[in-house]
Amino acid sequence: MASASVIPADVLLSRRVQEMVINGQEPESLYICRDEEEAKNVPSPLAPIPIIDLSLFSSSTLSATREEELQKLKSALCCWGCFQAIRHEIPSSFLNKIRQVTREFFEQPMEEKKKYSKGVREVEGYGGDPTPEEGQFLDWQDRLFLTVYPEDLSDTKFWPESPKSFRLVLENFTSMMRTVTEVVSKSMAKSLKLEENCFLNQFGERAALQARFNYYPCCERPEIVLGLKPHADGTGYTLILQDDVEGLQVLQGEQWFTVPTIPDALLILMGDQMEIMTNGVFKSPVHRVVSNREKERTSVAVFYTPEKHKEIGPEDGLVNEERPRLFKKIKDYDITHWEYYQRGMRALHIAEI
Ligand SMILES: O=C(O)CCC(=O)C(=O)O
Ligand SMILES: [Fe+2]
């Protein structure tokens, strides 16, 4: 078996899975991380993840109806750690536009995309993970990762100029996402009978939005290769726009469930930092993406993370005799999370008391 350490980081980083597929290369051992028998024999049923109508959280809704939707939201986040958000005010034509520019970006010739290549130590740009640590595996995907907010932290040298409309679409998407995060953060607080701005205050005015455009090429050996390995997000929470190809799965107990694709929905998935802020009431679910033999898949994940250097911790209103404080105050958790992620580990325990 080829060991990660014998392939220099720059060689590894210059590879693109898409290119390997075009050249007819089979996944080599560095990508092989699944047990073939498990993949063949264990079904992954569709996850009955609740669908939440965000428009019902507006003040013009009858209070009983609003309260019912808030309770549905709370139970979704306690049980699944995610929900499908609909009627979020982003028109479906615009969602299709984002899907379209994402596809168009990845369909371009390699020379064009490589203008935005990330460096070995950089997080932003086009490419994959750095050389994995010993015993870790690579994902069957390519990605483009961009910080989109606050604007002064975004590095526009990585923002594609082609397709032509990419930058404008992304700017509009960012401002729409900021509106969605405001509604979601307030609604989550209300569902827990907390002051509505409490999570927004913890995230801070300069909370980050980072967009990760994921491209999962077809794979000849989907039984042994994963599009994205199992992980929980280090974010506050993540907003995911899927296309119409299933692939994302969430772990519930010992069982993997496939997340249904709903054209107009955003999947909103808790990251570890919301689990910390809710003192463990909301769950940050482990999820992964499986590969597909026939269909390529794209998704756009928007990571919403508390402001740099800002301390976050459990809301006092969620700490009591029955539920003692589980987590301490912590800052820049996403950095520690990334270090653990590269070793194939979760980081949440470092915040535990
Ligand atoms: O592709 C997806 O649907 C999920 C992506 C994801 O989990 C991530 O980028 O962290
Ligand atoms: Fe994720």
UniProtKB/TrEMBL annotation:
* Gene3D superfamilies assigned: B-lactam Antibiotic, Isopenicillin N Synthase, Chain (2.60.120.330)
Decide whether keyword Metal-binding is in the record: yes
Q: Where does the Fe2OG dioxygenase domain lie?
A: 207-306
Q: Which InterPro entries match?
A: DIOX_N, IPNS-like_FE2OG_OXY, IPNS-like_sf, Oxoglu/Fe-dep_dioxygenase_dom, Plant_2OG-oxidoreductases
Q: Name one GO molecular function term.
A: oxidoreductase activity
SUPFAM superfamilies, sorted: Clavaminate synthase-like (SSF51197)
Q: Which UniProt keywords apply?
A: Iron, Metal-binding, Oxidoreductase
Record-stated family: Belongs to the iron/ascorbate-dependent oxidoreductase family.
- By what name is this protein known? Protein SRG1-like
Provenance organism: Durio zibethinus
